[in-house]
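Sample entry (380 residues):
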Amino acid sequence: MSSSNIKVAFLVDSLRAGGAERVVSLLANQLAKESYRVSVITFKGKDSDYFSLREEVKREVVPWEGFLSIKSFLKKLNFILSSYSVVISFMDQANIFALLSQKKVPVIISERNYPEYTSLYQKFSKYRLGKVFLWLKYVIYKKACFIVLQTERSREFFPAFLQDKIKVIPNPVCPPAGEGNLTLKKPYILGVGRLSKQKNFSLLIKAFKEASRTFKDWYLYIIGEGEEKQNLSQLIEELQLSQRVKLLGVVPDLLGAMTGAEIFALSSLAEGQPMVLGEAMFLGKAVIATDCPTGPKELITPNQDGILVQNNNLTQFKENLLKLMSSQELRKQLGLSAKKKAEKYCIENCPTGALEIDIQTGAIKVDEESCIGCGVCVRV
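Predicted structure, serialized as C-alpha cells:
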C-alpha cells in the first residue's frame, strides 16, 4: 500500500514542552515528509503548543472535560479515529482513551514514563487507588496491537500477560527545538525538565551550592515549569543562590540554551528515557545524570561519554560535578564521545522500511539489520 493512502493519527494530551510531545512532533513530521497522511490529535487546545508541525500535518483537538462527560467524549473520539489506518497514542491517559474508543482500527500505545510517576497514577494515588489503577490500565492495554517502551529495563513494570506485546524502541535523537540564538551568562550548567518532584532539581541546586564555593564564576540555569517552582525558588533563596541560579521557565530557544552550556545535568528520581539527555549528547555536551530507573544508563557509558551517579546521592553528584567543572579537557573528551554515540540514533539516519505494520492484523515485522533504533518506527 502506498504511504499516501495511509492515514496515521497520533493521540497525545498536548503538544506542550515535554519529551513525549517532542517525540510525537518528530515522528509526525517525519512521516508526513514521507507522504503519509498524518494528524496530531490532542485533548488540550492549540494555544498550549510548544512544538511545530509541518504544514501537511493536520492538527485536531478533542477537548477532555472530565469523567462526567466520558461517554460523549469516547463517542466523539471513536468517530474521529475510525477514519484512520492506524492510531498511535502516547502516555497512559491517551493510551486508555484510544483503546476504549476503538474496536476496528489498530492502536499502538507508547509508555513514556516510570509507571508510578504518570499523571493518572498520581491522581489515583491521592485516594490510595494507585495499584488498582495500574491493574485496570494493564487489562485495558491487552487490546493494543503492541506497546512501545524505550528501554529493556522498563519491561519489569509490566505483567507477564503483556510481555509478548512489548517492543523496545529508543527515543529518536536530534537537536533540540529553537533557532540557536539565545545567549546566557557563562560558564553555566543547564538542567531541563518539568519542575516536579520526579525531576529532583533540589538535588542539582544543592550540589551546585557546594560546587559554587570553589567555582565562584559559574551559573546554573533550569528550564521548565511545574508545581515545584515555588519550593525550588524558596530553596534558591535559602541557599543564597539567587544571583547564580535562575529558573527560566519554558524557553522557546532550547537549542541556544543547550549550545552555550558547559555541562548538562539530569538529577531525576525516575525517567522513561530522557529526551533532553539525548539532545545534549547530540550537541556534544558533557553530561552528568543520576542512574535512575530508567533511561540514563541506556544512554551513558560511564566515564566514556558521560558520568552516572547513584540515584539521589548528593555527595556523588557534588563530587562529580566538581570534577567536570574543574577540567575543560574532560568536558571536551566526554562531549565528543557523547556526540559520536548520539549521532547513531539521529532521526535523519532512519532507513525506510525498518519496521512494517500490517494494518489489518496489527502484525509487526522488524528488519533488525537496518533498524537503528531511532524511534521513527511506523512503516505501515
